[in-house]
Amino acid sequence: MNTSYRNRNVLISRCGALLLVSSFAISACATTGSSLTPVRIEIQQEVGFTITEETRISGDLRLDYDEALTHLKQGQLEQGVQLLEAVVEAAPHLSAPRIDLGIAYHREGKLEAAESALLQALESNPNHPIANNELGIVYRETGRFAAARQSYQAALATYPGYHFARRNLAVLCDLYLADLDCALQNYEAYMATVPGDKEATMWMADIRQRMGQAE
Questions:
Q1: How far apart are the first and last CA of the chain?
Q2: Is residue 45 part of a domain?
Q3: Could you give the CA distance from residue 64 to residue 89 in angstroms, rounded to a whole number?
Q4: How many structural domains does the chain have?
Q5: What is residue 11's three-state secondary structure?
Q6: For residue range 169-201, what is the model confidence (pLDDT) as tens digits?
């Protein structure tokens, strides 16, 4: 059973998953100071959500960011991480590069560094659903199941249709928290969005059987 299901798309211009659109409008202009740049989260129930982060950065920094994402897409983690670290240092007010860096650290197995990067992104944008979902995965993998639940719930509070977080929460409740009511409720909500997931269908049937036996 795959218990580490998650959105593995790095945060490029559009993160194309079912019912999920995540865009970062980072214009390549003159640099600004280090004040935090808030994101704008817009919910489209039929499409998903759009996340826009508007700022002004240098053209070279924009190129470095794009190159970093290209490396990550090609599985070249070391090169991607090095460039992202430089982008984060040059533009600490942006959350998008921090989230990408957190995801990249996670892929390298550096869970402490991943957690730190994601928490820093959430300091400026606490409602960011992708950051909250990714942080929930880190918490789960480090045995902090209650914290993972809170992170997934925070992602879903922003966008209840975020099926990656919904499935992650269902798996967490099922396998790690032994909360069958929570697991079944979230699997059902997930299946309403992604009805073709055969694994989730089997897991739901198993939970219903166990709940029936308990009764």
A1: 26
A2: no
A3: 12
A4: 1
A5: coil
A6: 999 999 999 999 999 999 999 999 889 999 999
How is 61-91 classified by DSSP, letter by letter? HHHHHHHHHHHHHTT-HHHHHHHHHHHHHH-
Residue 182 placed within a domain: yes
Per-residue pLDDT, 48: 65
Indicate the Cα dihedral angle 114, 162, 69, 41, nearest 10°: -100
182, 151 Cβ separation under 8 angstroms: no
Structural domain boundaries enclosing 178: 139-215
Assigned domain for 51 exists: no
Compute the chain's Rg from CA coordinates: 18
CATH number of 199's domain: 1.25.40.10
Beta bridge partners of 41: 51
Which tens digit of pLDDT belongs to each residue from 59-84?
888 888 889 999 999 999 999 999 99
CA distance 121 to 38: 10
- Phi and psi for 17 in degrees, rounded to 5? -115, 165
Question: pLDDT per residue over 157-167, tens digit each?
Answer: 988 889 999 99
- How far, in Å, CA of 32 to CA of 43, rounded? 28
Q: Is residue 175 one of the residues assigned to a domain?
A: yes
Q: Residues 6 or more apart from 108 whose CB is under 8 A from it?
A: 77, 81
